[in-house]
Design goal:
CATH topology of the largest domain: TIM Barrel
Helix content: 40-55%
Domain GP-PDE: 227-481
Family: Belongs to the glycerophosphoryl diester phosphodiesterase family.
Strand content: 5-15%
Number of strands: 9
Number of domains: 3
Number of helices: 20
CATH architecture of the largest domain: Alpha-Beta Barrel
Organism: Lophotis ruficrista
Main location: membrane
GO molecular function: glycerophosphodiester phosphodiesterase activity
Structural class: alpha/beta
CATH superfamily of the largest domain: Phosphatidylinositol (PI) phosphodiesterase
Order of helices and strands: HHHHHHHHEHEEHHHHHEHEHEEHEHEHH
Radius of gyration: 29 Å
């Protein structure tokens, strides 16, 4: 078999050994009859598809990191075991993509060296397992976490232009082994099919920017103001969530609103707590082991004050940022207790920030008494009522009558022919398109979207004109002075033309050079 210039026989032999898992010498008589068959071509095509499949999963894995803390909390509620599953996800994905990428590179190098593509049965088995694992991951994502499909669509607004350039570059490089294969094969039908398929794909890629839209393709002077930051349970990457320390850390990050969750104790004291059980964020298992599984509202305030609400943060390390805390912050975390709503309101008043909260659990039989107790604390606290943002839908009319100054925030979109226009909405970031955000902004409706942790997502929402975002990563988003990227439409058009022309000329060169 002929070798390309620069493709030495020892290199070709090593490549063939790694791909075929057997040592085949470079002597011609040893290679007699060893050629790439249709079956081998089918396995190469399968390898290419598995690589693309794992590459798409890698993209999804990176996107869902924004929401992965929710998944960790969900698993803890089910298994009472805290693990940062994002590390498991990334490591497993890296292994799969690396394996398939290495095999693909070996196959392309063998093709360029005019060597047979004899994939070993072990590699075939592992490729099938890789495809099954990734398919299972996508299936699980669709069943248990369907909203992440909408997250992926939003992510394309941030990555679309760059994905286009990357895919065009990858397909352009593929022209070299494709040209080598076409000139080596004697099957005319296969040649025509591959050329037509390749040309169709490249034509689609060249025209793809016509369908790419992003709110960040705009002029600099059209950029809306930076969204305000709402601290999700405070600053949970820097301090134990829903504690006074977390509120202070959020203030240091220049958040304008402290978002929290309120429950009411058995003796009528509203306090800050997200979970219905206390086991994740306190040491209730050690202090009250026989009552650890009870609802948080089953404990009286005296019992709740005995619990440590901070040490879990250092032990479980819910975020990687915990490891970088100073000694002083670590000590302060161990001293945290469950704060009452009264204490949180006082801290918010002193810091001149607003407080927004849900009242849980909504299905409790004494929910109206919870509303009454919460309203009583708010009215007695002395905090300006416009600094209180009320999220619960239950008994909202009663709240409007007793505390008319409290800002009403709705967890839904506006309705047609609504009697009372909405002024504030609070929704998952997946639930509003860029067009809806712009329309709400034009109609002077404040839009807060949650939970936004990654700079790419914050950039897209910033460009869209969202009023504020709820975040776990206030220390990261506060440092952003500008969206990650902003491209004037004329500049993007120029990049599109240059990339497509360069790709076309490179492909033409590849086919002419290897002829």
């Amino acid at each position: 078999m002929a070798y390309l210039p620069g493709c030495c026989r020892p290199c070709a032999t090593c490549l063939l050994c790694l791909y075929s898992c057997q040592w085949i010498t470079a002597k011609k008589e040893k290679r007699k009859g060893l050629r790439t068959t249709k079956c081998d071509c089918s396995w190469f095509l399968f390898l290419f598809c598995v690589f693309l499949f794992t590459l798409v999963w890698l993209y999804f894995a990176i996107i869902i990191l924004n929401d992965f803390h929710n998944f960790n909390e969900f698993i803890f509620k089910q298994r009472k075991l805290w693990v940062d599953w994002s590390l498991v996800l990334l490591i497993a994905t890296a292994v799969l993509i690396t394996y398939s990428a290495v095999l693909l590179v070996l196959a392309l190098c063998l093709q360029l060296c005019s060597q047979p593509l004899k994939l070993h049965w072990l590699h075939k088995t592992l490729l099938i397992l890789t495809a099954l694992v990734v398919a299972a991951a996508f299936t699980g994502l669709g069943i248990k976490w369907a909203e992440e499909w909408r997250s992926a669509r939003i992510s394309l607004q941030a990555t679309g232009p760059f994905l286009h350039i990357g895919i065009v570059g990858g397909m352009t490089l593929l022209a070299w082994p494709l040209a080598s294969f076409i000139y080596c094969t004697h099957n005319t039908g296969l040649k025509v099919f591959l050329l037509l398929m390749y040309c169709a794909v490249m034509m689609a890629l060249y025209l793809a920017p016509l369908g790419i839209t992003s709110p960040c393709i705009m002029e600099e002077n059209q950029l809306p103001p930076k969204p305000a930051l709402v601290g999700h349970r405070g600053a949970p990457m820097l301090a134990p969530e829903n504690t006074l320390m977390s509120l202070r850390k959020a203030v240091d990050c220049d958040v304008q609103v402290f978002e929290t969750d309120v429950m009411v104790s058995a003796d009528g004291v509203p306090f800050l707590m997200h979970d219905e059980e206390l086991s994740r964020t306190t040491n209730v298992q050690a202090v009250f082991p026989e009552r650890a599984a009870l609802n948080s509202t089953a404990f009286n305030w005296t019992d709740l004050q005995q619990l440590d609400a901070g040490s879990w943060f250092l032990e479980r390390k819910p975020f990687p940022t915990v490891q970088s805390l100073s000694a002083g912050d670590r000590y302060e975390a161990t001293q945290q207790r469950i704060p009452s709503l009264e204490e949180a309101l006082e801290a918010a008043k002193q810091s001149n920030i607003s407080i927004m909260f849900d009242l849980r659990p909504e299905n409790h039989s004494d929910y109206q008494s919870f509303v009454n107790a919460t309203l009583e604390v708010i009215l007695q606290s002395g905090i300006p009522l416009q600094q209180v943002l009320w999220l619960p839908d239950g008994f909202r009319e009663q709240v409007k009558q007793q505390a008319p100054g409290v800002q009403q925030v709705y967890g839904r979109k506006r309705l047609q022919n609504e009697k009372e226009p909405l002024l504030h909405v609070n929704l998952p970031y997946q639930d509003m398109s860029s067009e809806e955000i712009r329309q709400y902004r034009q109609d002077n409706i404040s839009v807060n979207l949650y939970v936004v942790n990654q700079p790419w997502l914050f950039s897209v929402l910033w460009c869209s004109g969202v009023s504020s975002v709820t975040t776990n990563a206030c220390q990261v988003l506060n440092e952003m002075k500008h969206p990650i990227w902003l491209l004037p439409s004329n500049t993007y058009l120029m990049i599109w033309i240059v990339v497509d022309c360069a790709s076309f000329l490179t492909i033409l060169w590849a086919f002419l050079l290897l002829k």
